[in-house]
Backbone:
């Protein structure tokens, strides 16, 4: 099994357990469930920089990134820096995150918040909405075309934006449908963990302009963004670059300032 298969197997057990503990009816009573969401896709289309900044404590490819920064400070810092949106990892076992991180981020900023998670069940969309998220991530590598359709349509009915992540042409071709807002190209090879911006460049021509194009992984320099913009990318998900510093917000602010020069 590759790492993604391990994560999904664990996620199925976790979601099954949660469904037994907290019914959907309870999630729908959350004070945040009827909150008006903010569109990340709209923000990206109207931004010069397109930065989506992440809160991530650790990852399978890099054991510890930063365990000391608290979510509230990171969220406020990112908002002050002028990012377009904030991505919050909610997987516990492999990334050290939780849904509480989304709640804390939501209480600390008004940015669109992406719940970054391995979504394999509609239940997780209700969870995202009830904890104050605005956007959900669907990973084509772990979902069938029917599941992508089912989950993205439910997301739209909940007024959540949908970012669909692909790694190759096959995943992209099976996934293109009207219920998506953004298509993210992950530059990381899931089998080798190697990163190459060429993935974004090659796939860019096959992504219809109806969708906001987002490039993910390996975006750690101004040069990378400048390289990708001519290919139609309007969003850039930056995961570890800010989090591995002592002050993620200050790092993001400096990065955006340099990008705007």
Residues:
């Amino acid at each position: 099994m590759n790492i993604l298969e391990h994560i999904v197997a664990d996620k199925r057990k976790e979601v099954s357990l949660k469904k037994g503990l907290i019914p959907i009816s309870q999630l729908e009573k959350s004070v945040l469930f009827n909150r008006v969401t903010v569109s990340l896709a709209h923000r990206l289309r109207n931004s010069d920089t397109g930065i989506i900044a992440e809160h991530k404590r650790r990852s399978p490819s890099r054991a510890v990134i930063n365990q000391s920064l608290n979510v509230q400070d990171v969220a406020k810092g990112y908002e002050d820096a002028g990012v377009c949106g904030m991505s919050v990892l909610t997987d516990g076992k492999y990334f050290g995150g939780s849904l509480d991180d989304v709640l804390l981020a939501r209480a600390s900023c008004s940015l669109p918040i992406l719940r970054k998670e391995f979504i394999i069940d509609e239940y997780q969309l209700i969870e995202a909405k009830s904890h104050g998220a605005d956007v959900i991530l669907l990973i084509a590598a772990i979902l069938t075309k029917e599941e992508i359709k089912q989950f993205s349509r439910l997301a739209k009915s909940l007024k959540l934006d949908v970012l669909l992540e692909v790694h190759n042409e096959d995943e992209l071709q099976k996934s293109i449908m009207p219920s998506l807002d953004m298509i993210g190209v992950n530059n990381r090879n899931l089998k080798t963990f190697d990163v190459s911006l060429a993935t974004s460049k090659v796939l860019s021509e096959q992504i219809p302009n109806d969708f906001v194009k987002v490039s993910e992984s390996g975006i750690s320099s101004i040069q990378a963004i400048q390289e990708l913009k001519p290919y139609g990318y309007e969003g850039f998900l930056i995961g570890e670059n800010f989090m591995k510093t002592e002050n993620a917000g200050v790092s993001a602010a400096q990065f955006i300032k340099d990008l705007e020069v």
